[in-house]
């Protein structure tokens, strides 16, 4: 009899509770699931990162004397085959808060294990708790999870003899692998740790100021997101390295610090939000398809995947240069900073009145770091679908003027307007004739914002809105900011609180 360690989105050997708890002949397994990769939120750029992380995992496992066995197909069928050949005594994995497809697949694996007497142990890898009955003590439990000792890579485990490793396929299914990605992020543990070390050694010095603009954020932010999404390094290890670095920083003369204490603290709070958001999807997996607030759900109008407005938005040809620049840079790099993610999602839902599920799926495919538990609650939050967050209707022109005053980012990504003076690059519709090759704006921004505000006002006047919102808050809201902006950007949270105090319900970005 053997024990199988099933690697999913936890592609590492360090601090890997599932691997460390396996005994006897151990078979480390990853199953490439073509059906998962056919999902509307999966993409070639995500696969590329996953494949590179799998190669890294294979090398790390070889270092402790184990093969990484890779199979392509349905997990239950793969397990049934291994069980018939070797007899599986136990299956070890990490808990996964994935999309609805992986949720259903895990239930099928559970049924298979129960039917065949296989003990399946799922270990916690994030501060995300199954069957959580209340959010009240979540923060303390999360802190305890992150403070637990790191688990070293196990040594001396016995491999199952004569099992073919299996190749990691070039592609998980037949598709066009070209999805516009020009600058992929390197995968693997060494890449993740080098990002963290570089951030702490000085790259993060301008984190708090630099994170907001798409020009400065790619360097100022940690860029850990795809690594955390694929688990090439554990969240606990990142948290503990950061805490140790913060202690060292605190002991230094402030003038000698490579990054200010505030930068380390801001990163720590964002890492905290990672698990806070994933907990929402863990507690309510349907958030991928259903709005958190029932009135927002009732108000939804479906958007077809080939809707021309959706395509113009997703492909960066709306005629709104700053928005288009953000989308085009996302297509080319697989990454966008938080504020611009929030803006592009808000424009899709508010200005263009597209259904958040359709735009959210397009964004998911563009993000190398797609993490369903962060993504869907954030998509809903930026679309006014939660009922517990002060809605913010971003103005893509004002954001451009604020974050890219000289329109250099626009010039880089929207060459059609690069020859114009900077003020006109933001608003080429002010020219008598539109620049060649660039479309006129798909909406009048001011009129679209007013219409969106009116829709939101109507929604929030629905009978029972507040009572239902309190229910959403009880289930998902952060206890740290009682019913305020349930959002990590503290300056926004404070502004939202001020707006709420002043009796205003919405934030218009004018
Ligand atoms: C509509 C929308 C969709 C998003 N989808 C994803 C997604 O699929 N995957 C993803 O990892 N992040 C997502 N985010 C959150 C955030 O934008 C990214 O985590 C961040 O930009 C990643 O870059 P970084 O690692 O350099 O972040 P840093 O600023 O360096 O933060 C470090 C880590 O903290 C966590 N974090 C940071 N901001 C947030 C946040 N607002 N909410 C929750 N966790 C956060 C992430 O794990 C991140 O890697 C989304 C945000 C929005 C508005």
TrEMBL record:
Cofactor: (6R)-5,10-methylene-5,6,7,8-tetrahydrofolate; FAD
Keyword annotations of the record: FAD, Flavoprotein, Lyase
Protein name: Deoxyribodipyrimidine photo-lyase
Naturally occurring in which organism (per UniProt): Roseococcus suduntuyensis
EC number: 4.1.99.3
UniProt GO molecular function: deoxyribodipyrimidine photo-lyase activity; DNA binding; FAD binding
Note on how the cofactor is bound: Binds 1 FAD per subunit.
Signal peptide positions on this chain: none
Coiled coil feature spans: none
């Amino acid at each position: 009899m053997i024990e199988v360690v099933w690697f999913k989105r936890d592609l590492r050997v360090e601090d890997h509770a599932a691997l460390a708890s396996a005994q006897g002949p151990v078979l480390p397994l990853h199953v490439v699931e073509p059906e998962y990769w056919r999902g509307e939120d999966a993409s070639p750029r995500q696969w590329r990162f996953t494949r590179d992380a799998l190669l890294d995992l294979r090398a790390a496992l070889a270092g402790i004397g184990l093969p990484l066995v890779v199979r392509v197909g349905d997990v239950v069928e793969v397990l049934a085959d291994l069980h018939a050949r070797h007899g599986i005594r136990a299956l070890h994995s990490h808990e996964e808060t994935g999309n609805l497809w992986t949720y259903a697949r895990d239930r099928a694996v559970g049924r298979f294990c129960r039917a065949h007497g296989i003990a399946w142990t799922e270990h916690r890898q994030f501060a995300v708790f199954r069957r959580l009955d209340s959010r009240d003590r979540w923060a303390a439990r999360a802190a305890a999870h992150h403070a637990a000792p790191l688990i070293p890579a196990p040594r001396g485990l016995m491999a199952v003899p004569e099992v073919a490793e299996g190749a990691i396929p070039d592609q998980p299914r037949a598709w066009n692998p070209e999805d516009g990605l020009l600058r992929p992020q390197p995968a693997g543990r060494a890449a993740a740790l080098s990002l963290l070390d570089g951030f702490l050694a000085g790259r993060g010095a301008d984190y708090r100021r630099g994170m907001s603009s798409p020009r400065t954020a790619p360097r100022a932010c940690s860029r850990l997101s795809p690594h955390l999404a694929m688990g090439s390094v554990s969240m606990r290890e990142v948290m503990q390295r950061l805490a140790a670095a913060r202690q060292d920083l605190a002991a230094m003369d402030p003038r000698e610090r490579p990054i200010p204490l505030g930068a380390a603290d801001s990163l720590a709070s964002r890492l905290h939000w990672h698990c806070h958001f994933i907990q929402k999807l863990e507690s309510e997996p349907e958030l991928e398809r259903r709005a958190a607030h029932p009135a927002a759900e009732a108000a939804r109008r479906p958007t077809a995947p080939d809707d021309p407005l959706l395509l113009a938005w997703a492909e960066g040809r709306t005629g709104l240069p700053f928005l288009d620049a953000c989308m085009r840079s996302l297509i080319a790099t697989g990454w966008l900073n938080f504020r611009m993610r929030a803006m592009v999602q808000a424009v899709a839902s508010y200005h263009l009145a597209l259904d958040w599920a359709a735009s959210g799926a397009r964004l998911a495919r563009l993000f190398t770091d797609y993490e369903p538990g962060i993504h869907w609650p954030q998509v809903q939050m930026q679309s006014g679908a939660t009922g517990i967050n002060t809605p913010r209707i971003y103005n893509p022109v004002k954001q451009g003027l604020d974050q890219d005053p000289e329109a250099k980012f626009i010039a880089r990504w929207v060459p059609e307007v690069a020859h114009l003076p900077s003020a006109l690059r933001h608003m080429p519709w002010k020219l008598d004739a539109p620049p060649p090759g660039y479309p006129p704006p798909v909406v009048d921004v001011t009129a679209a914002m007013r219409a969106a505000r009116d829709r939101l006002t109507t929604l929030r006047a629905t009978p029972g809105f507040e009572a239902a919102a309190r229910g959403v808050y009880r289930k998902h809201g952060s206890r740290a900011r009682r019913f305020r902006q349930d959002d990590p950007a503290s300056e926004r949270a404070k502004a939202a609180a001020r707006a709420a105090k002043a009796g205003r319900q919405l934030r218009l970005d004018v």
